[in-house]
Design brief:
Number of strands: 28
Helix content: 25-40%
Strand content: 15-25%
CATH architecture of one domain: Alpha-Beta Complex
Largest sheet: 10 strands, mixed
Bound molecules: zinc ion, fe (iii) ion
Shape: globular
CATH class of one domain: Alpha Beta
Strand order of the largest sheet: 6-13-7-8-12-9-11-10-14-15
CATH topology of one domain: DHBP synthase
């Protein structure tokens, strides 16, 4: 058979992920000669040999090492040159390089086997890793991805590690964080007064402390966790008190899948999610009688659970510890602490002990959070394990910086047709988060060699992200309406330019008319949008204060429907501070601090308060989350609502829903039935409005976005009804429906300008 030569160019996450050794092995297996090389675009390969062997090699490329992600392969056939061997060539340095950077990946099976093998030289070594696993994004300070550009640069490899690192057939070939007990990072245990605990085994000592009910701050991959025994109520309650966190649920880390199954209902999809190499926190239905301290997740029927993802985590579950609270190391709403000095100063009053190590974390990155949904998944937070892997856009364009929104912020930088979305940054309400945002943008610009020509921002003039954008020295600045950006971000995931229908339901967003929007039915394309309809506006008594005190919104609805509602004999009214309300009512009448809003999130809040489920909240979205958890499968009742036309748009009047709920409350119907009927009604609102939109525009593609769609009961229901009515429904799958998606939508708009 004749010999042929093939030149192969591969783009994607192919550097620092064991791709070259994989190519090397594949070439030897097929008796091929030539070379492989990392360059500015990815990996380039030349192979020559018998035609059938070359073809076998090429098809073998489609199952690369686990972390690698092939985006594009280009093959060029040339005449053979007569190579003598196959070699791994030295990397080319190039200008304008774009090598994708891998997220941090959970410890792989091979490394775990070594970790627990007494004969292995890395037996019980907490920093074991290889080309298929370990830290990446959180330790990189610059490109190219070489050890010198990571926080491992201060550790010099011992001869044994170095030989692994340089040997093409070794599974640690060019594993930049490669280390062993001889040459790598080490653990140290401190008391909260900064005194080192003398022990030959900090891990064993930590396990003993946890068992004794101590709270330990543990340095992880992207920041510090606060850990404690999840079965000890006094301890978990103590952690809550010290952290000033009233009832927002704590995440759990469980020893293995068996433990998860003993606490939660786990189906095949959830079990894949929780065991995936990204290892997100997965929100799962909690089993009745699950042996977990009540303070882990008060008022919740679910638990947020993850499995160990670093060697250190695996060691901590060595003996007798089954489930640990593993919550972000921070004080109330500050971002997660990731520097040692910061940890000792800010967490001193929370943790009793500190388990730290000398491998520095360069970039803060929280745990990702997902919720299983039908055959797919809804992201609540996209961070570790996913960032900074880009979202592929349908179009190439100029370099763009999109600043996102101020709650659940992410930013996004584009280059070519890649959108590099940041990890979850958080709520822009303190200095720490804002500087995290600014530093993150600088890092992404550096890592992906991006110089923005456009900067995109929300229309909200008081957003920190907007003001940041305004202050930049960038040629062109573009404002994009919040809910339009929501819709566009979902379209970006599907590469759709529209026109299409979009239903965006969230808590708050700045509207073009200066009022608060959030129950929006739009016709959208990448060029612009039309507001086809929205929820009828209601004044928010006290403005932002109403977000924290949903009873205010409930009272505003009752006031609008019944006028003086004191005579309504329902528990909500009986427990209302009527004097406080009459003052607020006057302010609303005088239009003082009572902005009009069409927010669907606030309607959920109102119903939650009306049912006395949650009259005031301790964390954003709590009222709606608890309302969702009450729903009962099988209940099919619905409440009436009205849709009328006003100045060319459709207005949804939810007042009949509230009236019907009040009636049900008077009939002593159970809150769980009422909650379900309410959810069913909103699904009907969505479907009726979509039909109106279709009649107006002839469009039947629908994109769903907005924080309200974190409610998977509503999302599934709406999806089913829309599907049954002939709509093509599109939901978020790679990014969250909440404001974490805004930056992608903003970038998508700019790239199509
Ligand atoms: Zn590994
Ligand atoms: Zn070593
Ligand atoms: Fe939003």
């Amino acid at each position: 058979m004749e010999a042929i030569r093939a030149c192969v160019e591969i783009k994607g996450v192919v550097q620092g992920v064991g791709f070259r050794p994989f190519v090397y092995d594949l070439a030897l297996e097929n008796d091929l000669k030539g070379w492989v090389l990392n360059d500015e675009k990815g990996v380039t390969i030349e192979i020559e040999g018998k035609k059938d062997r070359v073809n076998k090699f090429l098809s073998g490329l489609s199952s690369p090492p686990p972390i690698a992600r092939i985006e594009k392969t280009a093959i060029l056939y040339l005449s053979p040159l007569g190579y003598n061997d196959f070699e791994i060539k030295k990397s080319k340095e190039g200008e304008g390089k774009l090598a994708l950077i891998s997220p941090d990946i959970a410890t792989c099976k091979d490394c775990l086997n070594e970790l627990f093998d007494p004969k292995d030289r890395r037996f019980r070594y907490p920093f074991i890793n290889c080309t298929n696993c370990g830290p990446r994004f959180t330790i990189i300070a610059n490109v190219p991805y070489d050890r010198d550009n990571t926080t491992m640069s201060s550790f010099t490899m011992c001869p044994a590690c170095s030989s692994e690192y340089h040997s093409p057939s070794n599974r640690r070939f060019h594993a930049q964080p490669n280390a062993c007990p001889e040459c790598g990072p080490t653990l140290q245990l401190f008391t909260n007064s900064g005194k080192m605990v003398t022990t030959h085994d900090p891990v064993e000592e930590t396990i003993a402390l946890l068992k004794r009910g101590k709270i330990v701050a543990i340095k992880g991959l992207g920041g510090f966790h606060l850990a404690c025994d999840a079965t000890k109520e006094e301890v978990v309650a103590g952690l809550r008190a010290r952290k000033y966190r009233e009832d927002k649920p704590f995440a759990l880390m469980c020893r293995d899948l068996e433990v998860v199954k003993s606490l939660c209902i786990v189906d095949a999809l959830s079990s894949n999610l929780i065991s995936s190499r990204e290892r997100p926190i997965v929100i799962l239905p909690r089993k009745i009688g699950a042996k977990i301290a009540p303070s882990v997740a008060p008022f919740q029927k679910t638990l947020g659970v993850m499995l160990p993802y670093t060697p250190l985590h695996h060691l901590l579950f060595g003996q007798g510890v089954d489930a640990l609270v593993m919550t972000s190391g921070n004080v109330s709403d500050e971002p997660i602490v990731f520097k040692d000095t910061e940890a000792f100063s800010r967490l001193r009053n929370i943790a009793d002990f500190f388990l730290v190590h000398d491998r520095e974390i360069h970039t803060r990155c929280d745990d990702s959070v997902v919720k299983p949904l039908k055959e797919t998944v809804t992201f609540l937070r996209r961070a570790r394990g996913f960032a900074p892997f880009p979202i592929k856009l349908n179009k190439k364009g100029k370099h763009i910086l999109a600043c996102g929104a101020d709650l659940k912020n992410t930013f996004c930088l584009t280059k070519g047709d890649y959108a590099f979305m940041s990890q979850h940054i958080g709520d822009m309400e303190n200095f720490e988060t804002m500087s995290s945002f600014e530093q993150g943008i600088e890092l992404f610009k550096q890592l992906f060699q991006i110089t923005p020509e456009f900067v995109v921002h929300d229309l909200h003039p008081d957003y920190f992200s907007t003001r940041y954008a305004m202050g930049l020295d960038v040629p062109k600045k573009i404002g994009v309406q919040h809910h339009f950006a929501h819709a566009l971000s979902c379209m970006a995931e599907y590469g759709s330019v529209g026109p299409a229908l979009a239903i965006v339901l969230d808590g708050t967003g700045y509207g073009e008319d200066g009022t608060v929007w959030g129950g929006e039915f739009l016709e959208v394309s990448v060029q612009g949008y039309t507001r086809l309809g929205h929820l009828k506006q209601i004044p928010l008594p006290g403005g932002d204060k109403a977000v924290w005190e949903p009873w205010r919104i409930a009272a505003a609805y009752l006031e609008r429907i019944y006028g003086d509602f004191q005579e309504l004999h329902i528990p909500f009214v009986k427990e209302l501070d009527l004097e406080r309300w009459s003052q607020l009512k006057l302010a609303v009448k005088a239009r003082i601090n009572a902005p009009l809003c069409s927010s669907m999130g606030r309607l959920f809040d109102a119903v939650s308060a009306l049912l006395n489920v949650r009259r005031s909240v301790n964390y954003e979205g709590q009222a709606a989350v608890e309302l969702e958890q009450m729903v009962k499968e099988g209940e099919s009742g619905e409440y009436p609502f009205e849709i009328f036309e006003q100045k060319g748009s459709f207005i949804i009047d939810p007042d009949p829903i509230i009236e019907a709920i009040v009636k049900d409350i008077k009939l002593k119907e159970s809150p769980s039935i009422i909650s379900t009927r309410f959810h069913n009604s909103i699904a009907q609102v969505i479907s009726r409005m979509a039909k109106k939109g279709r009649e107006e525009t002839g469009l039947s593609d629908v994109f769903l976005s907005g924080g309200v769609f974190q409610n998977t009961f509503l999302l599934e229901k709406a999806w089913d009804i829309l599907n049954d009515n002939g709509f093509r429904v599109h939901i978020h799958q790679q990014i969250p429906p909440n404001d974490g998606c805004i930056s992608l939508g903003q970038a998508f708009y700019a790239i199509h300008l």
